[in-house]
Every structure is written in C-alpha cells, then in structure tokens.
Amino acid sequence: MRALIVDDSKTVRMILGRSLREMGFEVLEAGDGKEAIERLYHGESVDVMLVDWNMPVMNGYDLLCAVRANVLLSHIQIMMVTTESSLEQVQKALAAGANEYLMKPFTKEHLQEKLMIMGVI
Description:
By secondary structure, this protein is of the alpha/beta class. Helix content is 44%, strand content 20%.
C-alpha cells in the first residue's frame, strides 16, 4: 500500500510517516495540496491520502474536491487529518468525499483504527 501524506508541517509528516511505515505502508509526502495534485497528475500511484485542511497554496479541502472530481483518481481513499474540529467542517469534508476524518492531536492507535475503518489495513 502506498500512502501520500499532505501537510505543510514537516513534523506532522514525519510523525504520520513513521506510523504508516510501521504499519507496512510505502510513504510519499507533499507540503501542500498543489504539490500533491501535481504528483498525482504526473503518475504517482497511491492507495490512500492523509490530508491536512489548512495549508498554503492549495488547502486540503480544495485538494479533496479536485481528487474527487477526477475519475482517474476517484479510487484513492482520503482521510482528513486536521485541527479543524467543528461539526460543520467534518460534515463538509465527508460530503465532499472524504472517507474518514481524524482530528489532531491523535495517537498511532487512533490512526490505525481509522485506517481499518477505511479498509486499507
């Protein structure tokens, strides 16, 4: 399984990456939504994306919408991993096609539980 972590925080990418590698994932990273979408449009194949909401250049919600609008990318499972905790934000992300929503801060166990719910582990 290949996972793409999309977060402007290098520290968050490192934490998520370590946890995912321990679960057996091959991990790719992007610092914002634009970088992520460019990687996907240029042939990077991923099974799951873990996406922060608040990022410069292109935020996670816009990335989510762009991925869901592209039939060639629609198979990718997407988990929002963010500090955005309002019910409205969660509902907005799920309505736009997010498969799961994980709020920061999180534990490895919470991450693993969400990935199991998504059926990727």
